């Protein structure tokens, strides 16, 4: 499955959960106080500092955080084509200035983050997946540049000359 297909599958999954899909780089206004479910892929500028390889993230914000938020996270991995029975998935707890959460490791490497954030009424849940890491596992590749982006177009060809 190419990286573009992974994004489409995640979009379909979160749409079925009632999320509004945001365009890359989109953000909800900070003053929105009602129930909220936002999802979408985005490109980060610069090198990631959170251990997630690559530039592309899939981010989901759920407010208020549903009781089954971690299950939704795991189900989205299945929707994106990851067979958890074939992989070691671990949750490492942390707490930073934003709130308690977990770094999610896939076969020993960072795949994503799951964080509970203080919100207007209770907590919000924020999930972030490293799309390149998910594609590396799905495509059984070792280098990001070798990933199939769409059809015959590779990640390396897409970013050729762009410094990646």
Task: Please tag this protein with its features.
164 residues; seven-stranded mixed β-sheet; alpha+beta; two-stranded antiparallel sheet; BirA Bifunctional Protein, domain 2
Instruction: Tell me the radius of gyration.
Output: 16 Å
How helix-rich are the residues, as a percent range?
A: 10-25%
Provide the low-confidence segments as ranges. none
CATH 2nd-level architecture: 2-Layer Sandwich
Structure commentary:
This protein is of the alpha+beta class and 164 residues long. The chain has one domain: Bira Bifunctional Protein, Domain 2 (BirA Bifunctional Protein, domain 2, 2-Layer Sandwich). The chain has helices at residues 3-16, 69-79, 131-139, 155-158, and strands at residues 20-21, 36-43, 56-63, 89-96, 99-106, 109-118, 123-130, 148-150, 153-154. A 7-stranded mixed sheet has the order 1-2-3-7-6-5-4. A hairpin with a 2-residue loop joins strand 8 (148-150) and strand 9. The longest helix has 14 residues, at 3-16. It starts with a helix and ends in a 6-residue tail after the last helix. The mean pLDDT is 84.
Short description:
This protein is α+β, with helices and mostly antiparallel strands. The protein is built from 4 helices and 9 strands, in the order H-E-E-E-H-E-E-E-E-H-E-E-H.
